[in-house]
Amino acid sequence: MLMLGGRMDAVGSEPSIMGARILVIDDDLRLHELLSSYLTQNGFEVDRALDGLSGLSKLESGIYDTVLLDVMMPGIDGLEVCRRIRKKSDVPVIMLTARGDETDRIVGLEVGADDYLPKPFNPRELLARLKAILRRVRPEADAERLTVGPVVIDVTSRLVSISNKPVDLTGIEFDILVALARRAGQVIPRDRLLSAAGRGDVIVSERTIDVHISHLRQKLGEPRLIKTVRGVGYVFARDALGPGGD
Predict the structure, then answer these.
(1) pLDDT confidence of 139, banded at 50, 70, 90?
(2) Which has the closest alpha carbon to 187: 66, 62, 30, 81?
(3) Which of 42, 49, 69, 122 is a plausible cystine mate for 54, CB 3.0–4.6 Å?
């Protein structure tokens, strides 16, 4: 049994959420339909999984900006799914549950959830929480400026610097760097990297992508910033150089 509270009115989108991809992991088909309709109207892209293992599989092969994760599901529950997510990724997770017990909320936060929303909930409250999380993890959407460790990216002017030294990149190198930096700490599968960079129109081999990554590492002058996850893809290492960039 699950009902969303409140009206399902679209309230308008904003730059911080435009195109953000949400993965809903919940075994309630009606909830999926309602959330998909509401969030799509408000500028999100929504994907779904009906159990924990399917959700983890989608996270391995796809790129998501936030996960909405139900606690009570068949098979492995949401708490265990969250634990497994945190072993590999820092993608934001909002836990959903029909149980309002404070203990469940605390355990959810302890295993790595970023927020917690009991069912039934008002969709506008969910939207507000999603926006808050995305403003935190995608600050460039408002300021058009990304800072990850020693790397500073001005998205609007397409300028990059590392430790205050300018870096000259090609157009596709810049787009790949932005895609990686926007999801710092998250592994981006090799076959999804160009799509995440907004260059889905460019058809290249995996070897060509490896070459672009190699050039990026050389130009940044610090190979530890972009790590290879063998057999999967690449991750921008948020803390590779430490707080001071040394």
Answers:
(1) low
(2) 62
(3) 49
